[in-house]
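Objective 1b: paired records.
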Amino acid sequence: MGAKRVARIAGLDVLLPALLGGLATLGFAPFGYYGLTFVALVGLVSLWWGASARRGAWRGFVFGLAHFGSGIYWTFVSTYYYGGAPLAMAIVLVCALTAYMALYPALVGALAGTTRRLPRTLWALVVIPSAWLLAELVRSWVMTGFPWLSLGYSLIDAPVTALAPIGGVYFLGALMMVSAGTVVLLFAGSIPARALAVVMIGLAPLGLWYTPPATEWTQARGEPVSVDIIQGNFAQAIKWDRDVFRTTLERYRAMTRASDADLVVWPEVAIPAPANQVQPYFDEIATLAGERNQTVLAGTLVHEADDAPYYNAVLALGAGEGRYYKRHLVPFGEYFPVPEFVKTLVDGVNMRYSDFGFGADDQPLIEVDGVKLGLSICFEDVFGYEIAKALPEAGVLVNVTNDAWFAGTTAAAQHLEIARMRALEAGRPMLRAANTGISAIIDYDGRVRERTQEFEIAAIESRVQPRSGETPYMRIGDRPLWLASSAITLLSLLGGLLLSRRRKKVGASR
């Protein structure tokens, strides 16, 4: 094999897919260059154009390694610096997660190669987008799901956000792939395919023009609620330090006492101790809030009995009543889905892990001044269907989180981007309280009205208008996307295999 051929193969199979994968990450927060993500997708579809199944899978895998490696590198920070894993184990775990995530574009690439003999217009506009959509949906479900960096999030500030309340984030990602396929057809397709691409590009603005605005699906309900979001700012390295515990109690007490809002929101596990161990403190906060007809949402832990699990919880103190237990736990972070002998091995290397209990799906909503709240804790707001469980009853969404696990990385900005998409999909404002940031008030159209900076003690005081009604996406969810993408992908795979077999038979008969 000549040197030029080796260089060409290395470029197409390694360097270019890796470059495109890294480029795709720049469309997500904190960068927000969604046009670069689109360019990367056009390049990826072009690399799959005419490639074999094996080569398509490899190029997709390399793309995924670069994309997810540059996009979720912050898992190393939480695993090594705060999770207590030895350096070698932390590197192995992060590499394994990145490789697992890269399998999804690899599978799409394999399907692209298997179906390459289908009509190119069908291949570019239907087969590849459907396969990518199915891959993202499956990634949101396997092992309870990790749908970080789903394509649609990169479009949160693009001129297509009116489509989010209709189809959700995965629908936006599929449309992005259709658009990438359209551009590829424009430059590499047949004359009829190019003509179709021109027509589609011309009709796209018209379609967006006639799409109902995102603000049309829900309506203002009742009077605005005064809110105060408190960001205590305790770094993960000291959050559980007993010498800092008294400072933690006093800071949240003082900041709550200084607020006259109807609703005060503390971050996830703002008080790093089981509630029963600091019950007098919570009683004091409840009395303080009750005297002012105020409700405090306090993030903490709940341990009801010696033989009961710990729960990641939010307690309503004061005028409001109730509690919320986190339902969707982070695998390998908040629960360890492995046999006991593996847990024993992990204990042997002093790596910290948790086994929290799961909250029930049918928990009653906490209510403040007649307004029901749709609560979620940290990772739960990554899943649209978790938010939908509180709708249409909830008028305001609330997410409490602790992104201090990923201090100094892009994780907090990415998480805020995800929260914005949930508010947009639901047509509800969201209150977001984060321990070290980024805390924010997000309007029902997904725009950030007010926010804090990271690593500062801060409070956001404002008024929030509850909403009623239901967006199409909250009503029907992802079910149509699952059905359509599964059916199209299966039929495409069968068609590709049949065409390949027929071609082999024709070749053998000659």
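Objective 1b, second protein:
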Amino acid sequence: MKYIIENILLCQSDQDQSKSLLIEDSKVVNAYSRLSHYNYMRLNTDNFSITPGHVMIDLSIININDFSCFKERMKHLQNIGCTTLISASDLKYESQFEFEIKKAKHAFINSSIDFLIGIKIPLKKLTATLVRKCNKYKVPVVFVEINSIEELYIPEWQRIRDELFPFHIVILPIWNIQASKMKFKKIKRDWKVLLTEYHITTYENAPNEHQPLSKEVLSNIGLYPKKGALLTGSDADYLLFKNDNLNKDKLEITQQLPDVVCANGVIKKAGVDIFIRPGSGKEIIVNVPRKFVSINQAFQPTTISIDY
């Protein structure tokens, strides 16, 4: 079915603008300021603002074995506007890679949300051959657990760097270090200097779970603009917010609960009703990470600071 969302305020991190969207089934097929020449059904969205669906991280959902608990987590994620989920297989050793990736895919067999699978591994176990497997199995994001400053220098970074072409993974640190604020700041600075030297894409902290990921992070992972955008060719993942609620609460739109959640052209939330469709979520495969990063970012050091 084709329909038009006409002249709605599109709220994004870089700018807000009036936009009209032509939706066909699960895709945005046109995204312009005016679509008056099309003769399709139009939605009345005068009292709403729109954002792209949120892409969020949830590392623990992959370990939920009870279906009712899994369903409740899905319900919570849809309620807060999550239309794409990033999780990670928990590896202790490189030899577990293939088994854990297969296990992770099975864990999402009843997912009602689109998902992307990364891996999580202790930093001291990160190797060039593991990165090569990420390339082979199209795993664009690696969470590394760091337990001491000494672990920063265990991986063979040059060999890892050599394996990054053409599949340039993103490495996200999870810090398990007890240190004073000043010392911790120095450790993060050392991490930044080290990975910048080898031109490896990373951040000083892994983004918070259950929070919308920025356009920059999505671009580095390779999800943007398929996800996290409302452009021609994007998936029809969007959130609608009543303008009265936005004006009343005076909060950032990303801090609000959406009134309507649509993923792949299917309504997942309408008011207080949340619709769980087990098995409707599909795995997202990233073929080329960092494909749509800006020119400035592409030619600058790739370690970026995030402050929370």
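Confidence is low (pLDDT under 50) at residues 301-308. The first helix runs from residue 67 to 79.
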